Amino acid sequence: MGLKEYVCGLEAALDVIGGKWKVLIMWPLKNGASRFGELKREVPGISEKMLIQSLKEMELDGIVLRQDFKEVPPRVEYSLTEFGRSLCDALQPLCLWGEQHMKRIEACKEQCEMQRREKEEKAQALSHAST
Amino acid sequence: MGLKEYVCGLEAALDVIGGKWKVLIMWPLKNGASRFGELKREVPGISEKMLIQSLKEMELDGIVLRQDFKEVPPRVEYSLTEFGRSLCDALQPLCLWGEQHMKRIEACKEQCEMQRREKEEKAQALSHAST
DNA sequence: TATTAAACTTACCTTTAGGTATGTACTTGT
DNA sequence: ACAAGTACATACCTAAAGGTAAGTTTAATA
């Protein structure tokens, strides 16, 4: 598994925006730079660990710029690079698609959850019966 | 965590195409229906378990249609629904973006890997020293 | 009667992602 | 001397994703 070999462009793109948080971090940054603490508030539910971890990877990928003002207490601002903005543009249609079909998707995922639970319960019942 | 609440359309969309395999399964299906065995060959590296698991979820999400010909040995064909094709269209720009910057992304990810390994080795060295 | 072929299914295991909680560094203001 | 404020770092744990390998079903055919 030395070097990555992407089958298609999508695989590469998803490798950049993969994970639970990255797109949620990108979206507020479209309106301009944010400090670490601000971002934490703008992305509700994220932990500090996930926030810096994501930001670091996004910086490495070149879609986010980190600017350290060398003050105490620390002041660091994050913003989108040109590259990052081009990624946002490419994501726009997908975002729209998601918005248009959000209700439907939510319903499907709930359905999924229900099936998962049923299966889990069935498995539990079986394991109880065997003891 | 009862019901899902998506912050933006992207979150919903990524919930549909999330995971390692789904887009890789969708792409060959753009050229028409495929049997299970065909898909297995068209998506190199995928296991049978991951293939049906993904296909089932995609069917539930309404982006893939499963057609069982009730033959023996079994013959089942999978194809994209209208909804699935609309998703493909929405993915096109992202796919293009990924293709255009594939080299750059590959390089970044290798860089990432290297950092991870360094860190791992450092941690190992420390744990050895402490014993 | 045994075999074959295709599409699953299941059990078990390893790896990775993500969550929680606590600690650190540094300087300004008290 | 010390408390406060901000951006991290680190250790530990749980849950989810994914991999491997073996088994199951069915009717036609040898």
Low-confidence stretches of chain A: none
Question: Strand count, sense and closure of the main sheet of chain A?
Answer: 3 strands, antiparallel
- Give the N-terminus to C-terminus distance of chain A in angstroms: 43 Å
Going by CATH, the architecture of the domain at 9-84 in chain A would be Orthogonal Bundle
Q: What is the overall pLDDT average of chain A?
A: 90
Q: Please tally the β strands of chain A and state the result.
A: 3
Query: What spatial form of chain A do the alpha-carbon principal axes imply?
Result: globular
Largest interface: A-B, 48 and 48 residues
What class do helices, strands and sheet pairing of chain A give?
Answer: mainly alpha
- The strand order across the widest sheet of chain A is 1-3-2
Binned strand content of chain A: 5-15%
Describe this structure in words.
Two copies of one chain form a homodimer. In chain A, strands 1-3-2 form a three-stranded antiparallel β-sheet. The N and C termini of chain A lie far apart (43 Å). In chain A, 65% of the residues lie in helices and 9% in strands. Chain A is built from six helices and three strands. With 131 residues, chain A is mainly alpha-helical. In chain A, β2 (64-68) and β3 form a beta hairpin. The first copy, chain A, has a domain at 9-84: Winged helix-like DNA-binding domain superfamily/Winged helix DNA-binding domain (Arc Repressor Mutant, subunit A, Orthogonal Bundle), CATH 1.10.10. The longest helix of chain A has 29 residues, at 102-130. Chain A binds a DNA duplex (30 and 30 nucleotides) through residues 19-21, 35-37, 47-50, 52-53, 68, 71-76.
